[in-house]
Amino acid sequence: MATVGSAGHEPAQAAHQRPAAVPDTSGTGSSPSTQNTNTNTAPESAASPQGSQPSAIPGAASAKLRYVTYLGHRFTVPAGWRLVDLAANPSTCVRFDVHVVYLGGPSADQQCATQGNAAVTGALVIEPSSAARSASASDDPLEQRITATLPGVAITASYGSDRPSVVALLTAAGVPTPTATGDSGSASAVEARITANLKPIQGPVTPAVVATMTQYYTGLGFDACTAPSTAQMTAWGSSPFAGIGIYIGGAGRACTQPNLTTSWVSAEASAGWHLLPLYVGPQIAFGTITNATAQGTSSAQDAASQASSLGIGTGALLYYDMEGGDYTAAQTATVQAFLGAWTTELHTLGYHAAVYGTETGAVGAAVSGWGKMTEPDALDVANWNGQADSDPGADPASHWAAHRVHQFQGAANATYGGVVISIDQDYFGLGQPCQPAPSPGPGQQPEYRTNCAGLVPAPSPTA
Fold it and tell me: What are phi and psi of 384, to 5 degrees?
């Protein structure tokens, strides 16, 4: 269990059988000694009871600046930030939309509330790493994450609008100046990266098979802030759901994803789960869209790269999560330009495009932009009316008939097989995809809605 120090010394806590942080009560910048136990791994998932409720972040933010030493490295915990020892609190959800310094690795069975719509901000995860031998740092401006190492330690730092303070915090700990990385660039360079990501993936569940598991399904699903563990997904095999929303990337992705790997995607697709990959990038509601076309394009490139790194092949349907509602006319026009660029670039890269939003927000922008913009191929309507249908009222002209998802209930706990997960509930109304055929004129029809004569929604899979 971590202990800390500040100018006004806080009470020390009992030792725990994990890498321990030692208090620095000097407040002067001197280097305190470090205690280490014989375990350098994150808490085992069994430490979190499967039936426990999604947990709030423990502890209160301190009004004072504090210092903590962890595995020989001294870190500053700014005033107003929480400090959480994940060894002592293994079910804690590791989130980047609240100011926290987390010590230790996120649990595979962390208990998370749903994604929400708060902006990602400054937060740090500092965990043991036997592979980390030296100091390094890289900054992905699209994801707004800095990944860094110090000897024996790996660090993931989100920053949102707090980059200067987060960089200063890392610098004070001995982390070098981050070098910029990211997937912005030409479509050909991104296509090469996608090919490199997908080519090594072998086995019966190929990336192409995974892609089909995003394209069509009629029935119930859910989305959760962090991808549940394979054990939790197995327990939920008794649920009425056969679709799951997963957050694959973007600066606005609030929760860590310790389970979301290529093997997880393959295993769940093999088990019959239909996937709804969500990307949460710049948001009109937070004023972070400053160049709609450029950012829509770069977001599509990053989303395709992230999807391919998880074994989600070309042809898959990728969703942009655009929060907020009651857009002004100017906001609507900006979102239309953004979504047009998002869709165009995903089509160039071989993926299909979708958007998640409200009827007075992003979905409304797509509907009102018909004939004036390159339209996404599917809609995911956020309308918590409790009706498990494809929400035809959100698409009065039925432009996206058989290509709509409806998030009809939000932020509720559900229990199946003894496992509690906090979820948003969805109805998938996705029919078989159509062959793309470009149409002339200023507005590009959705690829899925071209040459769709005789389209019949896919049947719900048997439970």
Answer: -80, 65
The pTM of the full predicted model, rounded to 2 decimals, is 0.84
B/e letters for 406-430, b = 16+ CB within 10 Å, e = fewer, are bbbbbeeebeeeebbbbbbbbbbbb
**Tens-place pLDDT, residues 231-268:** 999 999 999 999 999 999 999 999 999 999 999 999 99
Q: 318, 303, 381: which is closest to 353 by C-alpha?
A: 318
The DSSP 8-state label assigned to residue 446 in this structure reads: P
Residue 255 has phi, psi (to 5 degrees) of -105, 150
d(Cα 347, Cα 356) in Å, to the nearest integer?
18
368: β partners? none
Pairing between β-strand 100-103 and β-strand 82-85 as defined by DSSP bridges:
parallel
Distances (CA, A) of 70 to 32, 207, 315, 433: 10, 40, 45, 52
CA 213 vs CA 207, 231, 316, 331: distances in Å: 10, 20, 8, 33
| DSSP-assigned states of every residue in 32-45 | ------S--SPPPG
For the chain, how long is the longest CA-to-CA vector? 75
- Residue range 83-131, pLDDT digits in tens: 999 999 999 999 999 999 999 999 999 989 887 778 899 999 999 999 9
Residue 56: CB atoms within 10 A of its CB come to: 10
Angle at which helices 292-309 and 187-198 cross, to 10°: 20
Q: Is 91 helix (H, G, I), strand (E, B) or coil?
A: coil
What distances in angstroms separate CA 227 from CA 109, 123, 195, 276, one per listed residue?
9, 20, 25, 12
Q: Is 452 exposed, middle or buried (0-12, 13-18, 19+ CB in 10 A)?
A: middle
Pairwise CA distance, residues 20 & 421, whole Å: 30
Other CB atoms within a 10 A radius of the CB of residue 242 amount to 21
Q: At what angle do helices 262-270 and 207-215 cross, to 10 degrees?
A: 60
Q: How many residues does the chain have?
A: 463
Q: Whole-angstrom Cα distance, residue 372 to residue 449?
A: 16
Locate tokens 């789960």: which residue?
A: 273
3-state class of 285 per DSSP? helix
138: DSSP letter: E
What one-letter code names the amino acid at 204?
Answer: P
The three-state DSSP-derived secondary structure of 334-365 is HHHHHHHHHHHHHHHCCCEEEEEECCCCHHHH
Cβ–Cβ contacts within 10 Å for residue 451, how many? 12
The CA distance from 351 to 313, in Å, is 8
Token code pair at residue 156: 């993931």
